[in-house]
Amino acid sequence: MPWIYPFANELVFANPVIMGILERVFYQEYVMVQMGVDVPFQGSDYQETHRDFRPLFSDRIVTPLYALAVNFPLVEVTAENGPFQMARGTHVLPREEGLEKVASGEIPMESFYMQPGDVMVRSPLALHRGSPNRTNQPRPMVVMGYAMHWLHTPKVDLTLPKDYYESLPEKLKQMLRCQLVESLPQNKVETYVNFKY
Prior knowledge:
With 197 residues, this protein is of the alpha+beta class. The protein has helices at 10-13, 16-25, 95-104, 162-166, 170-175, and strands spanning 30-38, 67-73, 84-86, 110-112, 120-122, 128-130, 141-148, 159-161, 179-181. The strands form 3 sheets. A 4-stranded antiparallel β-sheet has the order 1-7-2-5, with helices on one face. A 3-stranded antiparallel β-sheet has the order 4-3-6, with no helix packed on it.
């Protein structure tokens, strides 16, 4: 997403309520590394069940939370328009074990219905997927990614105008891991790297 209003707003990317949650989860400094949007259209299908990140060490060692995703919808999310689906508790399981438990029904794949104004804070290590949009209206969901300051990933794509960045308080500057540009490109082509695990 381009870094423009209404999303280029401290009350969105540095919302005090969300920051309060992140500060209780992350015991060290963290950075915002992503702001994107997930928009299934009519005719979309189920995504492959996946994780957004790999464990830090091994699938056999429970990984402490080093990244969180914050989702919020721009429209009501219903059973018909492609709700986000997640299998609770799979963030602490080896991937294959989690997939087996989901496939057998031991751990259900739950749909999360949301209203505009709702926010979901989740572990990107939990197995999840997008579901089909069976309506004729797109279903936009904003996703903001936050990670511990020491984590570097090629998934980062946060580009800010230099003058906007320079106008921010120092604490917010330190929280944003971004590329600075003199002005945002008018016709930036979206690039997507598959980071499903």
